[in-house]
């Protein structure tokens, strides 16, 4: 018998190299300590998974860490396979089981990420090994497994022992002239695709059904196989989901990490995992739009507080609005946990509201502290130098981090763009486009205006301009960049014209000394990379003087 998850938790990738078996239909070697395997690998271990199984006789439900599973004979899947082959023919049955496996794998990767939110991403990626120890689907032996989520690199090879799909009955191998582990192959592809955000395709290069001692599979990104590869064509045309994200699906997407977004927050991923475990308010800063909202959403997912979060924008939030949101945190609906509060753009929050929030954090219960996630479009150096009230900074500074701006990640932009382009195409109901070699390298020349939003605008323009069936080329990207950021409508006045410009403004009564001073201070801080002390030296004043002028200007 086997334990089969309703969500089919049958992930086919492992991180630790297991011992081989004598035969795909024979027991493990006696040298392997069966009891020791219960504690092998990362968390959750097999022993912990077994401990998370619970059965409720009143409801007739068996649960694994809160998710319902079923217990059934392996013959159930064999019956399904035989009926599909009989009704559809072998080729169409293969396509259906590949599709079923892919969608189950993708869904279950989300289940693992949701059910064990504090897991390291690599552990979540390889957690299927421990699940298989008691699922009875297959035993996996690693040949090699190389993955880099941040750079989008993946190459793996595994041996599958005792594959249930390769059996025609108890200990009776299926006979075929081609590999037959269709659903498991689709499952492995779907599970891995979830974590990379782009299609990952597994191939079964040998199978027990062909007379081999074990099954052998290889996995790569679809681009690694080549767009002309027959399996890549089959997956793109028949296996990969073609339905765009609809309103009905968005709630689920909000509960799990989006692999196309994660590279943006990779520099602070460890910090987010740590912050999710601490009962403190969190501050996520960065120069401009560089993924602050994405990092905040991922932090909420890691801490299990993504659902029902309250959201405020600093520029449009006054004292009354802030008090109303805080009141909802103090008095949640019966049996509900206090909702999280996400405050975007804290630097634009009016000073009275900042003072109110600082006072609240000074005496609020610790469990409420952990429900506050604050973001800022200013670097931490600006915030600490008077970008927000000192009292509020003192409450947010202990658990604060800063995302690097896109200008500091130019080399990463082509890869980031490729991931987001594929996701954006699916959201628009389009097939993920083929990207010509080097087509996105233009993005590495300079960061797009408006950061992440600007990058999204360029990629949207790429999809709009792209002729149907044609690959994305450098020319298409260049046109999209020109459309989104065509450049200034008129040349900027040279420095020699500054006196004339001031004189003209004085003559018309439009001159503003505070505005000019603010512009000069901003230019100095930009040139100094946000370092207030360095900016003060450029202006010939002390850091304290510059901080005072910044604070006075905000008042």
Automatic annotation (TrEMBL):
One Pfam short name: XylR_N
Superkingdom assignment: Bacteria
Keyword Nucleotidyltransferase tagged: no
PROSITE patterns reported for this sequence: SIGMA54_INTERACT_4
Molecular function as annotated in GO: ATP binding; sequence-specific DNA binding
Domain Sigma-54 factor interaction: 263-464
GO BP: phosphorelay signal transduction system; regulation of DNA-templated transcription
Keywords, in A-Z order: ATP-binding, Nucleotide-binding, Two-component regulatory system
PANTHER family: TRANSCRIPTIONAL REGULATORY PROTEIN (PTHR32071)
Name used for this protein in its record: Sigma-54 factor interaction domain-containing protein
Lineage start: Bacteria, Pseudomonadati, Pseudomonadota, Alphaproteobacteria, Rhodobacterales
């Amino acid at each position: 018998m086997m334990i089969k998850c309703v969500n089919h938790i049958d992930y086919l990738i492992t991180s630790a190299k297991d011992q081989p078996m004598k035969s795909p239909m024979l027991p493990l070697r006696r040298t392997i300590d069966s009891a020791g395997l219960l504690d092998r690998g990362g968390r959750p271990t097999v022993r912990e998974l077994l401990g998370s199984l619970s059965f409720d006789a009143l409801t007739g439900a068996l649960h694994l860490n809160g998710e319902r599973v079923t217990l059934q004979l392996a013959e159930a899947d064999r019956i399904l396979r035989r009926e599909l082959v009989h009704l559809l023919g072998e080729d169409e049955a293969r396509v259906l089981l590949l599709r079923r496996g892919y969608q189950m794998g993708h869904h279950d990767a989300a289940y693992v990420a949701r059910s064990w939110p504090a897991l390291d991403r690599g552990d979540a990626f390889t957690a299927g090994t421990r699940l298989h120890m008691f699922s009875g689907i297959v035993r996996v032996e690693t040949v090699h497994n190389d993955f880099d989520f941040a750079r989008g690199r993946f190459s793996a090879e595994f041996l599958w022992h005792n594959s249930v799909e390769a059996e025609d009955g108890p200990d009776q191998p299926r006979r075929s002239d081609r590999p037959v582990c269709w659903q498991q192959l689709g499952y492995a592809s779907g599970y891995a695709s979830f974590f990379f955000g782009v299609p990952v395709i597994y191939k079964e290069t040998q199978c027990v059904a062909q007379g081999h001692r074990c099954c052998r599979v290889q996995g790569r990104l679809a681009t690694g196989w080549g767009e002309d590869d027959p399996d890549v064509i089959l997956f793109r045309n028949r296996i990969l989901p073609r339905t765009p994200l609809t309103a009905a699906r968005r709630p689920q997407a909000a509960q799990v990490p989006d692999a196309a977004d994660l590279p943006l927050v990779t520099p602070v991923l460890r910090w987010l995992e740590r912050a999710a475990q601490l009962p403190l308010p969190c501050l996520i800063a960065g120069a401009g739009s560089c993924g602050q909202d994405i990092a905040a959403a991922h932090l909420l997912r890691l801490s299990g507080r993504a659902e029902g979060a309250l959201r405020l924008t600093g520029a449009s939030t006054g004292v009354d609005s802030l008090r109303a949101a805080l009141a909802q945190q103090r008095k949640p609906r019966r049996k509900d946990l206090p909702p999280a509060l996400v405050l975007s753009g804290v630097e634009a929050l009016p000073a009275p509201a900042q003072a109110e929030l600082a006072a609240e954090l000074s005496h609020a219960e610790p469990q409420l502290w952990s429900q506050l996630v604050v973001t800022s479009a200013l670097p931490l150096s600006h915030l600490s130098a008077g970008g927000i009230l000192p009292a509020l900074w003192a409450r947010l500074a202990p658990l604060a981090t800063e995302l690097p701006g896109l200008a500091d990640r130019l080399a990463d932009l082509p890869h980031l763009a490729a991931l987001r382009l594929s996701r954006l195409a699916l959201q628009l109901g389009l097939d993920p486009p083929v990207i010509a070699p080097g087509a996105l390298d233009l993005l590495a020349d300079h960061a797009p205006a408006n950061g992440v939003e600007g990058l999204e605008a360029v990629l949207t323009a790429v999809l709009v301009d792209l002729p149907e069936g044609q690959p994305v080329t450098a020319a298409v990207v260049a046109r999209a960049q020109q459309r989104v950021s065509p450049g200034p409508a008129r040349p900027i006045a040279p420095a020699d014209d500054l006196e004339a410009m001031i004189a003209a403004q004085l003559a018309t009564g439009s001159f503003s000394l505070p505005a000019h001073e603010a512009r000069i201070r901003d230019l100095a801080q930009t040139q100094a990379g946000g370092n207030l002390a360095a900016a003060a030296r450029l202006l010939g004043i002390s850091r304290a003087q510059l901080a005072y002028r910044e604070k006075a200007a905000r008042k």
